[in-house]
């Protein structure tokens, strides 16, 4: 694969005395060097002036020396292209006003707009498009600006031209490769996120039968593979190219161990998920809340029967009785909160997927908010490629619920729900209530057993007596004790995260 070939870099202006040295170099090194070599003075032509945005010189050359802006330099490139490549908006404006043509193409079929995409020169691109440059201009390889932007990882540029000028983010080039192929090949993960968010076709096969995932695997771009697999389905991993190879096989053929292992694991995980076998991925999908509910109720009944109303124990005094029953009250209140927590929306963020179908062809990208501050700031990781939304800073995608959850904490299989913005305080309070209830009921149980008036004084006999008369109270105590440590740990973790929540630190 070879990307669009334009100038790779124009060295920054080198001031030496009052002389500006020119260092324009061509990409790939096979195209020679424009202008003069490093030790000579700046060349006196409109192309160099355009590349450096030297408006004064440009005006002098055009207005006094009669240089043309509609002709190419020795290598076949236009002054407007040089200005576009280097984001020289004023120079580009001047060139357009004095005979430069926004539609002009060089011998590669590239326009100034193509060149503006190389380094993501948004201002110049904006000017060119306002001057009626064709947003869908394709060069001899079939590359449009979206391809060029993807080849050079210019995500912000891509976002701008797609959202404002409706550039096609999923158009294939002459080899059938879309911008997503290029971003995967080059390993630009943010660009991949944006393209997937824009509904680029993950499974598109180029003339060699390769999908973007094939190219990411061939080039050993692990992060690109990760983003593509996370957004994808099992079938993406099984697609074979014209040689009959899947991305995983290609990666291992090329000795990209890390990528091959990752893709292999992903394939096994997908497979197990489909078969419904018990594995780690399935564990989090279990809905354990009814189990927890019933066991808690059972514990409570045991406590009431074998501790509070035990036939062999004296009746409770009023004060002690109040304390003993408060344990039951706290546990019940906790269970109510637990129920709320498991039923409540944890803070799901509305998906944008359904809007997609209703969109009209002439407004393909109304769904991206053009001025979304997160995207303008370049926070591409806030794009959820599954939900097709720009999520808030502390939101995360829950793979179990397959939704984005605001202030996502974790997916709790016991609650059978995510813990997020809307139920985190219910969850925390539930934990606090249960811990208090366990402390009280545990304490009450120990006191009741130890103060049994019928208990014999010798230890062995006492053990025997307790084993006969207090067996269920002792069982309750053991379970209560074990649960206490589990829940207390959770509460401590949750409390430390409570601090995190309140200082609003992003996850
Ligand atoms: Zn999501
Ligand atoms: Zn979840």
From TrEMBL:
Keywords: Acyltransferase, ANK repeat, Golgi apparatus, Lipoprotein, Membrane, Palmitate, Repeat, Transferase, Transmembrane, Transmembrane helix. Gene3D superfamilies: Ankyrin repeat-containing domain (1.25.40.20). Residues 382-494 form the Palmitoyltransferase DHHC domain. It is found in: Endomembrane system; Golgi apparatus membrane. The keyword Transferase applies. It holds the Pfam family Ank_2. GO terms for cellular component: Golgi membrane. Its EC number is 2.3.1.225. The DHHC domain is required for palmitoyltransferase activity. This is S-acyltransferase.
